[in-house]
Amino acid sequence: ISISSLAIPINKNEKMLRSPVSPLSDASKHKYSSDDLTSSSRPNGSSLLPSISSSKKHKGEIQSQPHPGDFNKAIHINSENVLLCNKPQFQTEPWSPLSTTPRDCRRTKLIFDDIPRNADYFMQEAKRKKHKADAMVEKFGKALNYAEAALSFIECGNAMEQGPMESKSPYTMYSETVELIRYAVRLKTHSGPNATPEDKQLVALCYRCLALLYWRMFRLKRDHAVKYSKALIEYFKNSSKAAQNPSSWGASGKSTGTPSPMSPSPSPVSSVGSQGSTGAPSPSPIISIPQRIHQMAANHVSITNSILHSYDYWEMADNLAKENRDFFNDLDALMGPITLHSSMEHLVQYTQQGLHWVRNSAHLS
């Protein structure tokens, strides 16, 4: 370190300033060398360099000295780096809210590939996951693995819809998947004081799947439902006209001897039970319909019930989601909100991400 490059400290009682470029005697060099070096290592030694900016001759030599201002700046930068290291990495987790807690560090994002696969691949994956769930004893892990297997079955049914597989029905695949999910939900209770947040999150995700599966099942059978509805409306319209035909019944309500084609002959029990008449039969409450109409009505009820089940499960999922707002708000922000009109691909990825968070939160491998 060049002693001549150091500025001379100024005493408060002195009135004159020595030029930093003036030559110093050996005694003055010896006098200020140790004091300057000692003071320059102190944090508050910034006042020791008042004339650095006025000297261009020794600029190159002075730059090698640790400027106290730069020292304080370095401390400030280092302190900021320490704070940044303790903050969550928003670049890797752009979905994470500003009020991130240490628990959210486990909410990592899954990477999904867009490689097209056939239905057989998803069927094998679904069977593998289901066998893994069958071998488990712990109920929560068992239900979680069944839910993951159900997602592979959903992907299998979706692949059946996309590909020409006439031997297999996606409707049947979705129907069997519904039963598997409902069984998984029954394994672990989500109500009561012993229910954990992970229990409610798992069941809410399963209810979302059930709601969209029932809605998709209705969409697959919608054309049949419309056809059955038209046939049933036409039949009941004609049957009501036939029942109101005056040729079958007189004005007084007594039978004229020709029974209605839609009403069988009254039984003796109903005749005896009639009031105010001795031999006049009363209309029977039982109406016979053709077997074809009966089958149409049963099929129509089965298809339209899917809509009712869909809305019921959707409302139950909403109620559970309200109890876990942070979880589902983060999931919606990351994957995009899910609706009844979401695709099967969106449903699978949304649920897979949610189940991944549930698994990590429950410390399951």
Automatic annotation (TrEMBL):
Superkingdom: Eukaryota
Record GO biological process: regulation of gene expression
Residue stretches of biased makeup (Polar residues): 35-45
Region (Disordered): 12-73, 242-286
Compartments reported by the entry: Nucleus
Annotated AF4/FMR2 C-terminal homology domain residues: 105-364
Alphabetically ordered keywords of this record: Nucleus, Phosphoprotein
Main location: nucleus
Gene Ontology cellular-component annotations: super elongation complex
Biased composition (Low complexity): 268-286
Family indicated by similarity: Belongs to the AF4 family.
Record's protein name: AFF3 protein
Organism: Cettia cetti
